[in-house]
Write a structure and sequence with these properties.
heterodimer, A: alpha/beta, 6-stranded parallel sheet, B: 6-stranded antiparallel sheet, 5-stranded antiparallel sheet, 4 helices, 7% helix, elongated
Chain lengths: 285, 391
Amino acid sequence: MKKTLTAFILVYISFITSSYANQGLAFIHGTGKQTDAYNDYWTGGFVNSVKQGLTNTNNYTVINCDFDQFMWDTEAAGCLAQQLTDFINNKNITELVMLTHSNGGNIVRWILSNPTWDSRFPNIINRTTKVIALAPSSLGTPLADAVKQGNIFESTLGWILGYDSDAVTQQQVSWMAYYNQNWLLGSASRPALPSEFKAVVGSDVDSAFWDGDSYCAGYQYQVALETTQNWLDSCSDGFLNCSSQSGAGSVWFKDKQRTNGSEPLSHQQSRRDCFNLDVILRNDI
Amino acid sequence: MKLTKLSFMVLSTLPLLITNPSQAKSLPMTELVNIDAPQHMVEQKTIHFSQAIQANGKFLTAKQGYESSSDEYWFEVTGAQLNKGVNLDISQAEALIRLSGKTSADNREFDNNTIDPSNIELFKSNHKLTTPFQQTVSQQQLATANIFPNSSAVKLDKAVGNGQFKLLVNEKLMPGQRFVINVKEKNSPHKLHLSTPSMNYLSGQQVDIKAEFKHNDAVLAFAKHQGFIKTPSGVKHPVKLITSPSGFRVEIPGDIANEKRGQLYELHVESQAVDKALNIRRNGKIAFAVAKPTAAMEDNVAVESTGANINLTVASEGRYEISGIVYGTNKQGRFVPFMLSRSAYYLPAGEHQLPLVFDQSIITSSGLTAPFNVKNLRLMDQSRMALLQQM
């Protein structure tokens, strides 16, 4: 009788808690300055499919910030913190799920790892239940190092290679090693992040022109990403090594384990509704 | 927020544990410096935050190093040199060569000058090779991924082999235009290995590095190394690699200041070695932080159930965070780590006695009791993004 009563109370408490929980979902883009990430970064097909996992499908936000800056900058983490705070306040969100892509995972990790940096951070951390990190660049990428080769100012002329944003600088491999050791949580031998951070890892690029799967998210991207594999490990998504994508938090799954047809997810495809990814995400929220 | 004398007396009546951290500080004490408060926006509010951590977790907060290996090299040439032909050392079959046009803030004429890969020719022993490339990648193809700007690439055919080649561009380039040539020799057994025991230095210290040119695991003798430091502003400072018992030691030039918050210095090493008559070139780099000692904490810390009391000397106004891994006592009387606590304060210059505040609800749910202890104490200058001390 006592056990039955206890079970009833636990179920009741669980019911009450879930009744009051108000879940929200934030789509957080990667490197770049976005003003319309809904259309330009994610596409409506992806956003509208994934948000179906919410009880209230209006409880979502698509972040638009300047992630060409270093992760700690006002335009990056500061902008993200403000947009998340507004979302939490306007929608009265009590359980926040963050869906990040690429360098967006690092900006989120900055907030989760540095609660005393900004008075807006603790409230966001306390409401975050999990982060689903699509292809996060947790350990940086050798491609960022390659882009920065020769980027040296000399006394008379300021010679640079283009695409030279602070975000690219930050994502060089040895730079991310320093930030992981000193400023970020969740990587090897560092304390865990205060909330779950689980990664979806892209492991290959399929660019055969006769294979229709190569065209999901655009064939022209695939050719470039296959080229960049020359700087990367055999396991990579064309932009990031699998080791980098797995470098913080936990690995939720590697693309081929869950995608339709065991198709790999290139770095472009891991933010689009390719190979049932959107449905897998929707079912987890 | 400064701890008042009264509240310190109240806290002092609680059971105390004085920690004497046995670990050496990774950043040695030096004279503190007084520098201006940063101009950028810095949080002013005092914030305390704790999170529960796994008892079996590893907390690598002590001095940490970094290792890298390189199977590539790069160098700069002009358009005139490319039109005439530049020598390339290739040590690995199927090497990939990337050519990136540099732009100049002072001369917009140099923008968007990309080499058409169909105009790239390769010579060996003065003979032009008829089918040297298995793949050519145009600027338009590379640009779709927004990764390499103003760039094209060619991948050498396997039959081309290795040795010294001449690469020539058979289209008229602007003579003063500058290009970066990057030779990537994926899967090469020849690698430049660089390592450093620490990525954190205080200004005035020396950087220790080990530089080894290896063929698989064998170190190649007589490799030549030269280096330079690239500052956060992108300025190049040639440095001397001074031989030391552990490898090389590099003096950080005293006249370079890090005015860019959070950005790192880089030590670049350019190396050459000869193996079985093959000339091999490699470039590598290691990033590291150089901090100014703006504050310091004493290593005697009084710990009680509400928090740890830290004595802090602040020489430069700014925002400082104290953090540590908190240990409680289990039923067997052993210390168990269970919480990461941080407290941050905006402080003027002077002496401060500040609490690192513990979260009481995490203590209660841990089931652990006093005495408590704090390890892995760290002092960060958040205003200037610098790790000042860890013990």
